[in-house]
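Re: that chain you flagged

S.,

Sorry for the slow reply, it's been a week of failed gels. I finally had a moment to sit down with the sequence you sent. For the record, here it is as I used it:
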Amino acid sequence: MQRVPIEFAHPLFFREGEMIEEQEVALFPYMMKRVYFYYDIVSAKPAPWEQTEKSLPPLFQLWKEEKEQLKAYFSQRDRAAARAPMIRGLSYLIVLLFWLNGRRTQNVRTWRNELELLPLVPINCVERLQFIFDRCDAYHSFVQLDKLFEEAEKLFYKQKSIMKKGMSPR
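Prediction finished late last night. Pasting the structure tokens below so you have them in one place:
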């Protein structure tokens, strides 16, 4: 058992002092479905934020799986059922943004300040995320979250293409 670092204690994700169970064999990226920010909290080796070409495509796939479930919940107008997968999706996006920038997710409590420092993020990312944080079980938040994932995925592939051409990534 490991105590969740105070930096990850945020009302949507963890309570202060909450414990998580470390797994011996944590099949990447599926531990993120069970424990928010798992690989960042346990400082996984190899570090997924240092191997974005391997770690980000599975993260996009993880979101696509949640998205299908969320579409069903929202089509049934079941906001209560949508809440947990929306919070998971929000945690995936935060992780994605940090890893996209080659950094470990470090402080979810001050996510706004942290994301404002990242050079590679979708346009108006902080404001759009604040909307989702404020209404995480609303359909419009789902639409916004999906758009942010799409834009972040495009940023990833654009950066990957630039790197292959031997140009500066930023």
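What I noticed first: Residues 2-164 form one domain.

Talk soon,
D.
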